[in-house]
Amino acid sequence: MPTRRKFLSQISPALLSSVTGLRAQNSRPNILFAIADDRSWPGAFETRNNALQLPAINRVEGQGVRFTQSYCGSPSCTPSRSAVLTGRQMWQVQEGGALYGTLRPEYPVFTHLLEDAGYRVGSTGKVWGPGNWTAAGQTRSASGVEFNTRRLSPPAPGIDDRDYAANFEDFLATRKANQPFFFWYGGAEPHRAYSDGYGRRLGKRLEDVSVPPFLPDTEIVRGDILDYCAEVEWFDTHLGRMLTALERKGELDNTLVVVTSDNGMPFPRAKSNLYDWGVRMPLSIRWGSKISAGRTVDSFVHHTDFAPTFLEAAGLPAPSSISGRSLLPLFQKEDPARDAAFTGIERHTMCRPNGATYPVRAIRTGQYLYLRNFKPDRWPTGGAFISSNRTPHGDVDVGPTANFMTEPANQKSYARQYQLAYDRRPAEELYDLKSDPFQMQNVAANPAHAPAKKQLWTRLQSYLRQTGDPRIEGRDPWKDYVYYQTTGFGASLNRSLPKAEREKARQMPRHKPE
Question: How far is C-alpha 42 from the chain's CA centre?
Fold first, then answer.
């Protein structure tokens, strides 16, 4: 009987190479990327109440790792998702760094790189956007083949009718034998609008909510948070069904499961802001035996880290121009050098005259949050400006909490909360998180914190120059980027539309923000 060595010596080099390559391909992990829409980090208030039940996410954490200091690229859908796909900061992707922008092909996205390497790539729900994906010349979808045909009757108005989990199973059925996959589960929840009272109809109780002190502690706000929690649970339900589907196929332990959100909760001083409730994200990762179960990682990580992580897991090199770093080493031990996160925003909605931006950059460390507001004369929410189809304070999502806070009587009764959410802000903000975890007391003018403020601003400037931020060079290209909304709010300002369509949009009723 020939020995294995002798047998292999009789195989042609080309065939041996093919067999070796197939084995390497089969050993590559599957990747399930689950990203919610508008969910803040779980330490915000969720862990201090009984209003939220997340068995699937808890399973991922219990069998994997939970990151406590994870940050998105920007507290706005499009720039945040651009950072995820490219591994680059929002100021490094031009039009991709603004809501309703576009993304140029010159910035490679990891989904295309995985697909080129033989991965089966697909998605359900929301991937990149809102914006015009093809305006700058993109010819391939952001994440492979879309699976959105399976529908269901949603449990409440405002919840998307796509059956995300059934669509995922349809995707799994399309793979070739032994083909690794990447799948993007983009839940539309908990993005507004909510069904008022849905959380209470599920049996949730107002007294179980812990309201962040920068919001009024009222029945209306508590109920709004319960409705938000109910939609987070809907996202979790579909994730649980996806995990079960993988388990049935015996593929769960060879699947890198990543669960996060694109930006913060749609409440005042959260979404579209660089405080923790706008940019600090939940992040849980499971990968069978590759991760010790039940670990917690406190090192700072960023959404730009996803692209190099997925590529390294697949055995592929990451583009040299990206900002992020692979998370794989953190699966084994902490990294003391990861001691800060950098975030930014330019333009969320088109809620200021002439498309003006509200540019802010921030550095977050373990003790401090420092923000640099480059245009402190402008309103962080858009102020009282009313476009042809827009309400005041357009960068705050319309909902019960925002409506309550902007009532004249409530502006007086809850003056502190209103001021924090809606008033103009100084050029520098500094928060000492050890004494002020809710980031409500700006100590930038306090001499006791002057050394820290100087050090943080120096470090922030250095990083922005290193990563080529036009803003730190005194340039503002964002004000001229096309706002590619074609219906509803913003369409009247979309210069890519024919004049007649823009004029028609000006006559439309006002719409809530994206």
Answer: 14
For residue 398, what are the domain limits? 344-506
| Helical packing angle, 219-248 and 164-172, nearest 10° | 20
- Cβ atoms of 510 and 389 within 8 Å: the answer is yes
CA distances from 310 to 87, 132, 363 (A): 11, 25, 25
Asked whether residue 325 falls in the same domain as residue 351, the answer is no
Q: Are residues 325 and 422 in the same domain?
A: no
Is residue 288 situated within a structural domain? Answer: yes
Same domain, residue pair 117 and 157? yes
113 and 316 in contact (C-beta within 8 Å)?
yes
The CATH number linked to 355 is 3.30.1120.10
| 276 and 403 within one domain | no
Give the residue carrying structure tokens 């009987």.
Answer: 1
pLDDT tens track, the chain, 514 positions: 333 333 333 433 333 333 333 334 458 999 999 999 999 998 655 555 677 899 999 999 999 999 999 999 999 999 999 999 999 999 999 999 999 999 999 999 999 999 999 999 999 999 999 999 999 999 999 999 999 999 999 999 999 999 999 999 999 999 999 999 999 999 999 999 999 999 999 999 999 888 999 999 999 999 999 999 999 999 999 999 999 999 999 999 999 999 999 999 999 999 999 999 999 999 999 999 999 999 999 999 999 999 999 999 999 999 999 999 999 999 999 999 999 999 999 999 988 888 899 999 999 999 999 999 999 999 999 998 765 445 689 999 999 999 999 999 999 999 999 999 999 999 999 999 999 999 999 999 999 999 999 999 999 999 999 999 999 999 999 999 999 986 655 665 566 666 665 555 554 443 333 4
Within-domain flag for 3? no
